[in-house]
Amino acid sequence: MPSLTLGDFELSIFSDGTYPLDGGAFFGVIPKIMWSRKVEADEKNYVQSGLNSLLIRTGKKNILVETGMGNKLSERMVKFYGQPARLLTNLAAGGVAPEDIDIVINTHLHFDHCGWNTVRGKDGKIVPTFPRAKYYAPEGEWQYARHPSERDAISYIPDNYDPLVQSGQMTLLKGGEEIVPGITVKTFPGHTAHMQAVIVNGHPGASTIGKGTASAPAIACYISDLIPTTAHIDLTWGMGFDLYPLQTIESKKHYYAHAIPEKWLTVFTHDPKIPWAYVEKDETGKMVARGVQVG
């Protein structure tokens, strides 16, 4: 459970496990001869993808960003991805019960980001996994999920979010909202049209941002599938799953325009080994990820 202090907040990574993903799909048009220098593939061309959720303790609220893959996959999907379903076990090992979570934020609604939003009860009914929590997700993402394209329909499981919307427990966001002081969402299109990153300002009362240092960063960003792993930090390294790959590049430019000079800590949703790092440019202009010491 990697943890660090971010100003007034405490950040911790809790994993739902790892799952196999086709390397070609994970890196899109990037040739294997290039991406295989950064990640290892097995004999079937699978690489390991992480499922990193971020727990933010503000002192007043426990906020969980993303809920992994969950345990409701169909038999067909289990054959492709497995079903690690480790998030609740790992939270419990860290002393966090479902009832302790006050807020859940989904950056988008693909099955591997919101799977533990709900569980199937003994009576077969879908119920919230985190009964006290207020849930948040992008409105445009939910609207799209109701009528997805044939290409990505498999990515959406309505039981992960529809019951929460219908009950009013999930609030749908336009983008740009402040969820609580210091925690805001911002739309970064590319992977999907309405995917939102979660920006955490560890000094919520400050009038300016971006004064972090390596030992005590002021700003962190759960950038979600815009930059899923440290192997995807180059501008043109996207995933085959990105619906709008050219927008992915533009969104990365926009993100780095703040994240690099202001020393934001980037949280990677799918990196199985490095959950967060600073993205910098070396002397040649190449993007590099610099790790941080964690508790």
**Helix fraction?**
10-25%
Q: Count of helical segments?
A: 8
Cross-sheet strand order for the largest sheet: 1-2-3-4-5-8-9
The major beta sheet can be summarized as: 7 strands, mixed
What is the strand content? 25-35%
What does this structure look like?
The protein is an alpha+beta fold. The protein has helices spanning 23-27, 32-35, 75-81, 87-93, 111-114, 139-146, 162-167, 245-259; strands at 3-6, 9-22, 46-57, 62-65, 103-105, 118-120, 126-128, 134-138, 170-173, 178-180, 183-187, 196-201, 219-222, 265-267, 276-281, 287-290. The strands form 3 sheets. The protein has a 7-stranded mixed β-sheet. Strands 10-11-12-13-14-15-16 form a 7-stranded mixed β-sheet, with no helix packed on it. Strands 6-7 form a two-stranded antiparallel sheet. A hairpin with an 8-residue loop joins strand 11 and strand 12 (196-201). The chain is globular. The model is unreliable at 207-216 (pLDDT under 50).
SSE layout and pairings?
Layout (H helix, E strand, L loop, with lengths): L2 E4 L2 E14 H5 L4 H4 L10 E12 L4 E4 L9 H7 L5 H7 L9 E3 L5 H4 L3 E3 L5 E3 L5 E5 H8 L15 H6 L2 E4 L4 E3 L2 E5 L8 E6 L17 E4 L22 H15 L5 E3 L8 E6 L5 E4 L5
Parallel strand pairs: 4-5, 5-8, 8-9, 13-14
Antiparallel strand pairs: 1-2, 2-3, 3-4, 6-7, 10-11, 11-12, 12-13, 14-15, 15-16
Task: Offer a concise description of the structure.
With 295 residues, this protein is α+β, with helices and mostly antiparallel strands. It has helices spanning 23-27, 32-35, 75-81, 87-93, 111-114, 139-146, 162-167, 245-259; strands at residues 3-6, 9-22, 46-57, 62-65, 103-105, 118-120, 126-128, 134-138, 170-173, 178-180, 183-187, 196-201, 219-222, 265-267, 276-281, 287-290.
